[in-house]
Amino acid sequence: MYTRTKVKNQKQTFVVGVEYYEEDLFLEIELGTFHTTELHAQRIANSIHNVILLENQIVIIFKNADSIILTDDFLKYAFKFRLCTKPTMPPLDISKLTQQENEDLVCNEAYVITEEDMKEVQWDINTAFRYLQHKYEARDQTFFSLSSSAYYVIPTSEEMDQEGMRNAT
Fold first, then answer.
1. Which one of 57, 131, 139, 151 is at 20 to 30 Å from 104 when CA atoms are compared?
2. Residue 7 has what pLDDT?
3. In whole angstroms, what is the distance from residue 72 CA to residue 55 CA?
4. How many CA atoms lie within 13 A of 19 on its CB side?
């Protein structure tokens, strides 16, 4: 008999999401809950090409050129903002570092952000947009193209029965 770890193409339910950032502002977007294989769930998470923060909306552009717009009135539950509270380190010219110094720098806790360094803020889209405008001293900037930080694929304890109904276990 095959167990779940032996069957790689076995479908299960996953919560899939991504995190994008600009400076110390992080945006987490939950893409949804999918009943699929783990590999396909990872492909869903990797299907995003770009996330753009506008004054009153977030535009998610997928690699297939489709897009979706999030607003404070539409899919508000799907995203949240977090701020990194860890002080930023001064820029460092890594071209002058030795290989060992480079390796030590990668592991240096002063440059590593942990969950404890993150603080969730209850901001709407406009507040996050204004925060970045202020941070950059760019009052005339009309959008921010956010950088990819991470994605997550979390298996849930729900499974589909023979009739396609979800059962929480």
1. 151
2. 56
3. 11
4. 14
Q: Which residue type sits at 148? A: S
Query: What Rg value do the Cα atoms of the chain yield, rounded?
Result: 20
Among 61-70, 120-129, 143-152, 157-166, the range scoring the smallest mean pLDDT is 157-166
Cross-strand partners of 91: none
Give Cα 120 distance to the centre of its chain.
14
57 and 69 Cβ atoms separated by less than 8 Å: yes
DSSP of 50-91, one letter per residue? EEEEESS-EEEEETTS-EEEE-SSSSGGGEEEEEE-SPPPPP
Torsion 137-118-47-55 (CA) sign:
negative
Q: Are 151 and 18 in contact (CB under 8 A)?
A: yes
Cα–Cα distance, 102 to 89 (Å, whole number) = 16
